[in-house]
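User: Batch of two.

Assistant: Item 1 of 2:
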Amino acid sequence: MGKDRSVRYHNRVARRYDTIYDDAYWLAHDEITWRQVRPHLPRDLASRCLDLGCGTGKWGLKLLKSGYATTFVDHAPAMIGQVRARLEELGARGAKATTLVADIVAMPELPADGFALVLAMGDPLSICSDPVRAAAEMFRVAAPGGVVVATADNRIAAAAHYLESSDLDGLERLLRTGKTRWLTDSAAEQFELTTFTPDGLQKLFERSGFEVLDLVGKTVLPLRANRQLLEQPAERRRLVELELQLSREPHTAAAASHLQITARKKG
């Protein structure tokens, strides 16, 4: 049921999905993300990359344009439809891409040990029905020595909604189970989300067999509430640099809105 609701929501918003995240905050957020991903790009351009929970293909398209054969995976057919339209616009470069409608908890169509870099941005770990199975699938499809970069919802940040609505029962349930809901207007589209603490996210990947390289928060500074500063290029550059510095400090991840983990498959 939860999966059906998530697919229904993402199918509905696919055509306008990019406009939802088209503002100064997300521009800065994406710059921070790419600067954290870029050091892990494979040295060999013949390496294959994977974009899980790809949405309209933002990150996979960056990998593709960087020269890597890239596979795009999303559970919502309409999202994959948007990706395919963008690939057609790329002409010959788009021929290096593969698209797949699949749930990240089970991707038998993808080969084991197949991908040097796996991205799972936009919190598909939180959206999926079973993060343990999803992390195991990431481990299976990553090549030996390959890197996974994935994001997830931060549990403490999710607590703000329950406090603002004076819902102490909901707050206790969130802190006890880690579960919350996607807050969309339609009850038919409200699907369950799994939130994580930094420690819990690290343990999830370690138990799946990964070596954790890094775990940071995005964003630590309250940038979303101060978008006006980000609308000025000079101020945005300064704030991006400060955010990147803070993300390297131990324990700041717990204060962020989302968590991002970077892990390697030993081999």
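Item 2 of 2:
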Amino acid sequence: MFDLFKIGFINVTFVDLLDIILVTSIIYKLYVTIKGTIAAQVVFGFVIVLLLSIITQALNFKAIGWLLGIISDNWLIAFIILFQQEIRKFLVMVGRTPLMNIFVDKAEDRTSMADILTEAAFEMAQYQHGALIVIIKSTDIKGVVESGEEINSILNKNLLRSLFFPRSPMHDGAVVVKNGVIEAARCTLPLSQKTSYNGIGLGMRHRAGLGITEQTDVISLIVSEETGSISLAEQGKLIRGLSKETLKNLLTFSLSAGEVKGWRGLLYHLRNKKNKK
């Protein structure tokens, strides 16, 4: 194998370097996953037990060494039992990496997201519960996510309704959704400079929903608290008064990677089809 460089008598190859990078990435991901949780304290405890085991063996403390040996010999089983939630979270993080996305068909996920968002929006509209949901398409909006409260939960209709319930402490602001996961709630969005659209005045919720689409590649789903009407914003454009079927079609189409991009392309396609008839 071709040597990249040499450290003393150790020859470092490309495979060695790749191995180090992969191990470092895994350790970093594990650190991010357990940081600030009780799991981090347990890991620290395991390290202490391991060090004590080594010391007792060196000092030939047979009784204590035997006791610590039982713990260290069964650490793998204990690790799986204690960290089952963290292991699950870590595996989910691995599954969301761009490399894994190459092997996953997103068509079903897009349809599922559109269904959940549509059902949630119309149930909230029925009770005139205002809502603002930002769906990330390609670019991250880390600053917006960090301005709110971290959620990191699988997209769920009932959870969305709970977050936007008027008495909920997090009903103000926007919910950010990415790849079928609610990343954060109560997020602050930049306001559009427009105070009206097509001659109709814009409230703060609509200005915020429109403003974020003017700056990033996202979709904003807006439920009016005053009228219960549902709007969709994308690329600085706003469409109001959507029916349930239209909203679902627009969301599905916009989240897909078809030749016609976004819901504006779908509307153009539907108009042309209607004119031909």
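The chain has two domains: 3-101, 107-276.
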